[in-house]
Write a structure and sequence with these properties.
Length: about 290
């Protein structure tokens, strides 16, 4: 009898306040039903022997931006002793949102982004509303939107991030997000799986250090041809064209209504399986197939 593959679904004991991975128990049960052993493990648990798994799948490691170098070292270790998905090289590339600049340079329609590393404060727009967020961030942590007259508040925000060694990124606020929201397109093995739409995350005058709801008003979405084409262009631009187990492309509308890539989530994206339960068998089957 062929032994069942052993699979680790990786999360963290330090989920941000209010964050719950509702997909995780459903996915574990679906992986078991698909013919594998499945364990939920914390990425920074020193007691876990990662070499004892045939496959390690990153799921809700939503604290990695607080300890990025430690997390990347863990990913590299897993890549040596077993198979990690997505692969360590992808994790390292996607952990820093400077990749948005790389996508734009390759012709992918992406939200215009400027980066302010520690020590650099010149670059705040003076003629339009904008967003400041960390170049390594998740869940709208340290993100806020500003009007030009709020320059001093914005500079204090940048100084706070610089004090922690964080590079700030500046993006124009995309006003159509207030009416059309964001769309998140989920891919499995390079093929479109399902999508959701959600409301705008950043309300006016919400401070950067306030807790925010990362996915307000989630609802199923059928993407347009333009949205699918933009998302596929983003995935084709990932360096090395690696085989990705999962991917999520977050899109917003430009003023002319065309989609722009807001983020390309390849590390630990919420896959919204509770909103698309029919996708669970496909995701579990892909995981078990990768383990075998």
């Amino acid at each position: 009898m062929v032994p069942q593959p052993r699979i680790a679904l990786v999360t963290t004991a330090r989920l941000p306040e209010g964050a719950v991975d509702r997909d995780l128990p459903l996915l574990r049960d679906a992986v078991v039903a698909a013919g594998a052993e499945a364990a939920i493990a914390h990425w920074d648990d020193p007691a876990v022997d990662w070499s004892g798994f045939d496959l390690v799948v990153i799921r809700s490691t939503w604290d990695y931006t607080w300890r990025t170098e430690q997390f990347l070292a863990w990913a590299d270790h897993c890549g040596v002793v077993t198979t990690l998905l997505n692969p360590p090289a992808v994790v390292r590339w996607n952990a820093d949102k400077r990749y948005l600049g790389e996508l734009a340079a390759l012709g992918v329609p992406a939200v215009a982004t400027r980066y302010l590393p520690p020590g650099v404060t010149d670059g705040l727009p003076g003629d339009h509303e904008y967003v400041i967020k960390p170049a390594a961030g998740a869940g709208a942590r340290y993100a806020a939107r500003y009007r030009p007259e709020q320059r001093e508040e914005a500079l204090a925000h940048v100084a706070r991030m610089h004090g922690e060694g964080i590079t700030a990124m500046i993006q124009p606020y995309m006003p159509r997000i207030d009416s059309t929201g964001e769309r998140a397109l989920v891919f499995l093995g390079g093929r479109f799986l399902h999508a959701i739409a959600k409301n705008a995350v950043l309300s006016p005058d919400t401070r950067y250090d306030q807790r925010k709801v990362a996915h307000p008003g989630v609802r199923p979405w059928t993407p347009t041809e333009a949205e699918l084409a933009t998302a596929e262009r983003a995935l084709e631009a990932v360096p090395g064209r690696p085989e990705l187990l999962y991917a999520r492309v977050d899109l917003v509308d430009a003023e002319d209504g065309t989609p722009r890539v807001m983020e390309l989530e390849l590390i630990e994206p919420n896959l919204f399986l509770t909103d698309h339960p029919d996708s669970l068998p496909a995701v579990a089957g892909a995981i078990v197939g990768a383990a075998r």
